[in-house]
Each structure stands twice: as structure tokens, then as C-alpha cells.
Amino acid sequence: MPSDRERYQDYRSAEQCPADATAQVRAEKDCLSTWHFTVVKAEIKNSGKTSTYKATLKDKDSWQGVVRFGDPGPLLKRLKPDDQVTATVWRREIVVLSKDGIRQNSSEAPRDELQMNAALGMLAVLLAAQAFVFGAVRLARPRHYQPFTWSPYGKWLLITIVSACFGVGLPAVWIGLPWQIVPIGTVLVVVCAAVLIHRRLRRRSAGGV
Questions:
Q1: At what angle do helices 181-205 and 155-175 cross, to 10 degrees?
Q2: Quick one: which of 78, 80, 97 has its CA closest to 35?
Q3: SS3 of residue 120 by DSSP
Q4: Whole-angstrom Cα distance, residue 118 to residue 180?
Q5: S-S: 58 plus which of 64, 118, 132, 172, CB 3.0-4.6 Å?
Q6: pLDDT tens digits, one per residue of 42-85
């Protein structure tokens, strides 16, 4: 995550390369260069859980490559074979494609979405922690491992973890909160929910309401 933040900051501060800059100069200055390409084909495929958004480009020197996107718009869905497009290149990657004033970031463009990176990281960590705790209890108490079972405690805890990660991460992105708030808020929500669910299950098993 720190490397993602630094990469985004470097990208935001990058300046346009001089028109006569060589490849070595562009690398040393870490600047943005402009290239012109011809569209070979544009592909937009939505099939179930798999989506493909990409454009195949070529230049006059017979180079051909593929630029991938996270969604079809606003530019990709308008592209047709033989269209002339302008590409912004940074660190040898096409980060922006444009045509007639319409721009679209490629999948390689650095993004200021550290909050969601933190949320997805916490999702992985908390799921691993849940699996570890449930497994450890099973090994330590093979005959008395309740309520550390999939149903209902494990299932409720899983739903809580997923809901907490996205419930904290998405508002943090929208509002622009620091990414450090995401792991703190997520852990607090999950821990409190885990304790409350555990107490409720104990009362239920003891014959309470």
C-alpha cells in the first residue's frame, strides 16, 4: 500500500516530456510522453463473472499492443478499427487513451483508491483469522468446540466481515477519508459484532432468549 500511494503521487506530479526527449531522458525525468496509434480492434465482453475491456493498437513501425480498461466507457465503447487515438505513456505503460477530447484511464493508470486496497486487505486478513481461530478451537477442543462452527456462528461472522470491509471502505473512498481509518474501523466493527453474536449464542444455548 505505501508503494501504491507513492506511485500515485509520482504520477500526479509527473510533467510532460520535452518533444525531442529520448527514451533515456523520459526514463530519467519520469515524465509523461504522448504517442499516436491506430486502433486495430476494440473488445467489450460481458460474460457472467468475467468481463473483458481492451483495445488493440498499432503504430506506423509495425508495433502492436493491447491496452486494458476497467470498464467500457467513456472512450472504449466508441472506438472502431482504424480510429486514430492519442496515448499518454508513463513508465513504459499506456495510462490514458484519448480521441476527440474524450479520455479514459487504462487499467495501468495509478489510482487514488488506497481505502479500497485497505478494505480488501482487511477482508483477506480477517477471513484468514476466522479460519485460524475456528481451526485452532477444533484442534484444542475436539469435543467441545461450540459455538465455533460454520452454522450459525461462522456464517454470521463471515457476513459481518464482508459487510464491515465494504461498509467502511466504500464510504471512506467517497468521502475521502485517510486509508488508515479503514483497518481500524473494520476491526472495531468485526470485534464488537463477534462478541455480541457469541454472547447471543451462549444465551440461546443456555435456554435464554
A1: 150
A2: 97
A3: helix
A4: 8
A5: 64
A6: 999 887 667 899 999 999 888 899 999 988 889 999 999 999 99
